[in-house]
Amino acid sequence: MTKKEIVKTISEEIGLTQLKTKEIVQKTFDAIVETLVEDHRIELRNFGVFEVKRRAARKARNPRTGEKVFVPEKFVVTFKPGKEMEERVRELERRANEAARQQAMQSNHAAATPPSASPPHETFGSATSYEPGSGNSA
């Protein structure tokens, strides 16, 4: 989902113009970034925690050349989802697993069930072909 889609959804749900909603959404994002820069942490109850963490310098390997390279220390933003978010994602995972299990059961059932004998085809006429004037009247 893009910021534009978020703005549209919120705008429709609460009855504000998209322009005003966009301003509010952008101010919210700006406040999150400013808090991270100043305090290195922002906790949004029932959502999660953003934190700025220092990633130490390290030696790494260039995957293309295999050459050893030095990666300097840097600061990264991490996110730890809140309890409600984790529970909802876990429920999504549970549903996906259940759907996969049911699909596997149906596939196994279909593979184990022999195809039903098809009813005999009706045949018209005799085994010999009919040719006009041959005297065969089937």
UniProtKB/TrEMBL annotation:
Compositionally biased region (Basic and acidic residues): 87-98
* Gene Ontology annotations for the cellular component aspect, listed alphabetically: cytosol
Enumerate composition-biased segments (Polar residues). 125-138
Domain of life of the organism encoding this protein: Bacteria
Q: Pfam families from the xrefs?
A: Bac_DNA_binding
Tell me the InterPro entries matching this sequence.
Hist_DNA-bd, IHF-like_DNA-bd_dom_sf
GO molecular function per UniProt: DNA binding; structural constituent of chromatin
Which controlled-vocabulary keywords does the entry list? DNA-binding
Q: Where is this region: Disordered?
A: 87-138
Q: Which family does it belong to?
A: Belongs to the bacterial histone-like protein family.
* Record protein name field: DNA-binding protein HU
Provenance organism: Lacipirellula limnantheis
